[in-house]
Amino acid sequence: MMVKGIQLQLCGFVTQRWNLKPITSLSFSSLSPISYPNPNPNPSLKLLPTPRTTRFAPFRASSSLQSSGNVRSIKFCQWCGGSTKHDIPDGEEKLRAICTLCGRIAYQNPKMVVGCLIEHDNKVLLCKRNIQPSHGLWTLPAGYLEIGESALEGAVRETMEEANADVEIISPFAQLDIPLIGQTYMIFLAKLKKPHFSPGPESSECQLFSLDDIPFNSLSFSSMVVTLSLYVEDIKAGKPKFHYGTIKKRPGTSPSDIRAYTLDHHMHT
Amino acid sequence: MMVKGIQLQLCGFVTQRWNLKPITSLSFSSLSPISYPNPNPNPSLKLLPTPRTTRFAPFRASSSLQSSGNVRSIKFCQWCGGSTKHDIPDGEEKLRAICTLCGRIAYQNPKMVVGCLIEHDNKVLLCKRNIQPSHGLWTLPAGYLEIGESALEGAVRETMEEANADVEIISPFAQLDIPLIGQTYMIFLAKLKKPHFSPGPESSECQLFSLDDIPFNSLSFSSMVVTLSLYVEDIKAGKPKFHYGTIKKRPGTSPSDIRAYTLDHHMHT
Is the pLDDT of residue A18 over 80? Predict the structure, then answer.
C-alpha cells in the first residue's frame, strides 16, 4: 500500500556526541542553514547540480491524512457500537473519544511509513506513482507498516509490491517524523538481490536515477525530498549516515507546496 | 502514559557498511550469539558483572496489547456506526474491518513507544512502575507517541510525566520493533537539564543506577532488557551507538517470561 500523503510540524532541542545540527525552528533559521538541491524550474527530470537553496523545501498534504488526528470524527465505539463522547479522561491531558456505553477509549496514534532507498550501480530506484495523491510524481517505494511485521520487513514488502524488486536491507538510513499528519518515516538503505524491477499496480514506472539526475522537481512528498537530499549530501561527503529529524510545515504556506518545510532537530551519526 | 506491555516476533536479513550482526533467527542462533548480562537470581538489585548469557532473554506480554492486531474485534464503524464485515479489500492482501454502510476500512497499524535513556554522572535513571502491567518493576520513562508530536517531543514528555525530569535529547539510541504486539520502541539518549527528578503518578520511585547496579532481574519489559543491555555493552566498548533490531518472542515460552526473546536483524552504527 503506498503512502497516501505527507506533511509537517514540531518544537524541541538537541545536543552533543553525534554530529547534531542546532535547533532549526524558524526563529533559528539563520543558524546552520541546511541546504537542499535547488528545484529545477525546468520540468525535465535533469536537476541542476548547484546552486542550492536553504532548508525550506517540500511537503504535500492529503486531506485524508490531515484528519488523522481528528478525534471528533470518531463518533461510535468500534467494539460495541455505542456513541462516543469527546472528553479528557481522568489522569490524561488529551481529548479522546470515549464510549458512552462500554467506557473504552479510542486512542489515535501516529503511523509508521516504511520504505527503501535502493542503491544500484551508483543510482537509486524511484517509482512513479500511479495513484493519488501525487499521481505521476516520483517516490521511493514506501507505505504503511502493518501489524505483525517489523519496519525492515515492511520496507522489503512495500518494495516488492511497488517495484517488484527483491531487496536486501543494508542499514537504517532515516527516521523522519511528520507530527502534523501523524506519520513517521523509516527509510532503509537497501540493495537489489537481482538486477530486476518493474512497476507494481500502484506504480506506472520504476527507474534508476544517478544522483545528479534525481527528479527533485517531480517528487511526490516532502519526506522524499528530505530523504534524497540527505542521501545525496551523504554520498558526496563519503558515505551514508543515519539521520533523525522532524519535518515541519512552514507556516503560511500552501498545503500543496511540498517544499514549504523545515527539517528540525536534525541529528545524524 | 506508560507503556501497557511488550512482546515479540519476526523474520528477515541484513548486511554491509554498518557493523551488522548476521541473521539472528533461531535457526542461526549458533552464529554470532548476542550476549546480555546474566540475570541475577539474587533478588537484590546488584547485577553480577559476568558471566553473560546468550541472546535469549526478556519479554512480558499484556493481553490487551496482544489483541492490538485483532481485526475481528472491530465490529462497528467508528465514523458512521455501521456494522463491519471482515474481508480482504480489492487490491490488498490483509483481512480488514470494512463498514457495510459507508464502506470505509478501519486500518490497524503498529504503535510507537518513545522514551529516554537518561545519563547522569555515569548512571541511568529508571522508574519503578506504579501501574499494571509489571507493577513494581523498573522501566525507562516511555509511553505511546501521540498524534501531533515528534518522537523526540514524545520522549521528553513521557520523561516529564513519569519522572518529573526535564531532559535534553542527546541522540537516537535504539529502534526496536516488536511485531507480535504491534509496537516499535524509539529510545533516545538524554541528559538532565537540572539534577532533579521525582516519581510522577505512574511511578512509585525514580532512581539513578550505576551500570553495574541496573536491576536486570527486576525490569518490566523485554524492550528494557534489550535497551539497557545494549547500552551497557556500548559504554563498556567506548560510546553509545544507534541500534536497530526486532524483538521476537521465543516460541513455546511463557508470555510472562520477559527473557524469552531473540533480538533479530540487529544493526548498529
Answer: no
